[in-house]
């Protein structure tokens, strides 16, 4: 019985061994199982022959069956390898997932940069254009002293209307000097773009609002029966910037380091400029410089239109050169100094030759020298030498224009320092000094034939000057208002003598623009978000010389940018 039982046990073991290779296995077991299973089957079959359970022929058949099954299993595990085939090693699933995610991220990034993630959605040039804009809403009040002179002429309006000085008891156009104007609601909106043209070339364009074509302000006064507001071309330029140089042509922002005592922050510069920066001085400093030529006016091609003999070219230019140093003691501590020279070439007025307007002439030969735009403050004189009509001298019409009495060649010095303080606060200090090197009272009287109209004292002596200066201080937790909750307060003082600089191009808020003004300004700003801030300013100014004229301005505004 035991012998028979052992035979059956051996037979069962062989059956299990033969079936074993077909069972599913994983991991290291799967790699080791064919050899282990094959050896076991051979030993069991030999034992069956020795025990007389099966014959030698049957054992051979079982061995052949085991080899066929082992070969089939191996072929199932390892497909045929032919010449030229590449064996790929096993890669764990976690590694494959990591590779897949990394490749996906790189492809998506490249697709966004090259704009083929969503083909035909936007043209290629869109990716090279940057759009920007800002909106300002301001409430402005203007307060004028009751004892101001009420005989301050508006010389811009005078030239626009060619005021006739021969008409008795008719005042020239006059400025409002005594009546307040409260709560004027005003807006400024600007929208533009800059585009990369490749190979160091860029171009830009900006549109802006404005109540007029004044060069110093793009602010639009609301009202007017809810009429739509004007839009003006405010910027249009092309630039080339190889290396440390930048060349710009067209109508662009100021290329110079300056303050609004000389150039309004909204003033655009028509012309060409070349600037360079990045020339190192030691470890922390760098030189910079700028050259520029900007046309201020061209004489009309057919001037005078009613004469055969045309006037030779008498174009007006602003020529400027500046050299400075930008020194950074630390990453957030900076000192800047800049020295500039500006030649306002040919902008002074010229007295005309005798001009018989009564004979039907429409202009005099020096009319071209009248300024295109004035605010107030500069010394001015009568341009036209009008000939009286023979036999009708008392009734001869005398429409006049005025021009600038002084030449302007300016030395401009700017100093700026910005430094961190305690508790992450910042302090900024700035100073600006301007001197008109061409100021000469004797030349002014000679040029005008003694017909200067303004800036006289009660004794009839001309009161003017060639100097202007400004100091400014700001304090806050971030003077750039780069984050929500940032704030700053500021204070400053300005002093501008009548002929220290042209009155046409500086800030239009302090003393409502121009020269012959002194006083202080103060205010503060607060950022609600990085792109939305509020500001309040109080500007208080009065005349330096001449007739009394004190003007205070209050501005409360919201500024948004995008």
How does this model look, in words?
There is one protein chain. By secondary structure, this protein is an alpha+beta fold. Helices cover 18% and strands 36% of the residues. α1 runs antiparallel to α2 (27-50) and α2 packs antiparallel against α3 (56-77).
- Order of adjacent strands in the largest pleated sheet: 1-2-3-5-6-7-8-9-10-15-16-17-18-19-20-21
Percent helix: 10-25%
Number of helices: 6
Strand % is 35-45%
Low-confidence stretches: 21-36
What structural category arises from helix and sheet content? alpha+beta
Termini Cα gap: 100 Å
Please write the string of helix (H) and strand (E) elements. Answer: HHHHEHEEEEEEEEEEEEEEEHEEEEE
Rg, Å, rounded = 44 Å
**Apparent shape:** elongated
**Main sheet specs:** 16 strands, antiparallel, barrel
Nearest-integer average pLDDT: 88
Number of strand segments: 21
Describe the secondary-structure layout.
Layout (H helix, E strand, L loop, with lengths): L1 H18 L7 H24 L5 H22 L15 H22 L14 E16 L10 H7 L19 E18 L2 E8 L11 E2 L10 E9 L4 E8 L16 E13 L3 E13 L18 E15 L2 E13 L8 E2 L24 E3 L2 E2 L15 E3 L3 E13 L5 E11 L4 H8 L18 E10 L10 E10 L20 E13 L2 E11 L8 E11 L1
Parallel strand pairs: 11-13
Antiparallel strand pairs: 1-2, 1-21, 2-3, 2-4, 3-5, 5-6, 6-7, 7-8, 8-9, 9-10, 10-15, 12-14, 15-16, 16-17, 17-18, 18-19, 19-20, 20-21
């Amino acid at each position: 019985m035991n012998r028979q039982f052992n035979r059956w046990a051996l037979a069962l073991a062989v059956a299990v061994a033969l079936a074993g290779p077909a069972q599913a296995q994983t991991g290291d077991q799967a790699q080791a199982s064919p050899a282990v299973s094959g050896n076991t089957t051979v030993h069991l079959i030999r034992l069956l022959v020795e025990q007389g359970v099966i014959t030698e022929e049957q054992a051979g058949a079982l061995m052949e069956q085991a080899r066929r099954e082992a070969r089939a299993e191996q072929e199932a595990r390892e497909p045929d390898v032919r010449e030229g085939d590449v064996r790929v090693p096993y890669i764990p699933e976690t590694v494959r997932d990591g590779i897949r995610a990394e490749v996906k991220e790189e492809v998506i990034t490249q697709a966004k940069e090259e704009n083929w993630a969503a083909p035909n959605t936007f043209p290629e040039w869109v990716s090279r254009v940057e759009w920007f804009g800002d909106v300002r809403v301001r409430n402005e009040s203007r307060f004028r002293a009751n004892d101001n002179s009420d005989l301050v002429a508006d010389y811009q309006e005078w030239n626009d209307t060619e005021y006739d000085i021969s008409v008795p008891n008719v005042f020239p156009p006059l400025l409002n000097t005594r009546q307040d104007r409260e709560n004027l609601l005003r807006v400024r909106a600007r929208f533009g773009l800059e585009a990369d043209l490749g190979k160091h070339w860029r171009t830009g364009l900006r549109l802006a609002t404005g109540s007029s074509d004044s060069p110093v302000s793009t602010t639009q006064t609301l009202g007017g029966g809810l009429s739509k507001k004007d839009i003006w071309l405010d910027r249009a330029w092309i630039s080339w910037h190889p290396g440390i140089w930048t060349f710009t042509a067209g109508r662009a922002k100021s290329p110079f380091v300056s303050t609004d005592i000389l150039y309004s922050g909204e003033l655009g510069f028509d012309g060409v400029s070349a600037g360079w920066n990045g020339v190192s001085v030691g470890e922390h400093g760098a030189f910079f410089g700028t050259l520029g030529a900007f046309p201020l006016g061209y004489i009309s091609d057919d001037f005078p239109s009613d004469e055969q003999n045309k006037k030779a070219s008498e174009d007006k230019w602003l020529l400027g050169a500046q050299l400075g140093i930008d020194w950074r003691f630390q990453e957030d501590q900076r000192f800047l100094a800049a020295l500039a020279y500006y030649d306002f070439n040919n902008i002074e007025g010229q007295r005309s030759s005798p001009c018989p307007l009564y004979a039907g002439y429409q202009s005099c030969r020096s009319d071209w020298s009248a300024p295109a735009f004035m605010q107030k403050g500069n010394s001015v004189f009568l341009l036209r030498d009008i000939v009286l009509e023979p036999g009708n001298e008392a009734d001869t019409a005398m429409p006049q224009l005025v021009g600038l009495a002084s030449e302007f060649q300016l030395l401009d010095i700017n100093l700026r320092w910005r430094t961190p303080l305690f508790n992450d606060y910042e302090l900024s200090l700035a100073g600006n000094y301007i001197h008109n090197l061409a100021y000469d009272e004797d030349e002014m009287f000679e040029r005008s034939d003694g017909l200067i109209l303004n800036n006289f004292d009660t004794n009839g002596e001309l009161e003017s000057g060639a100097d202007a200066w400004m100091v400014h201080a700001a304090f806050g937790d971030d003077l750039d208002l780069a984050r929500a909750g940032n704030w700053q307060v500021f204070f400053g003082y300005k002093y501008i003598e009548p002929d220290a600089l042209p009155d046409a191009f500086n800030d239009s808020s302090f003393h409502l623009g121009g020269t012959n003004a002194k006083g202080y300004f103060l205010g503060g700003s607060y950022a609600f978000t990085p792109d939305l801030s509020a500001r309040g300013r109080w500007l208080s100014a009065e005349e330096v010389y001449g007739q009394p004229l004190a003007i205070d301005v209050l501005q409360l505004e919201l500024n948004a940018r995008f």
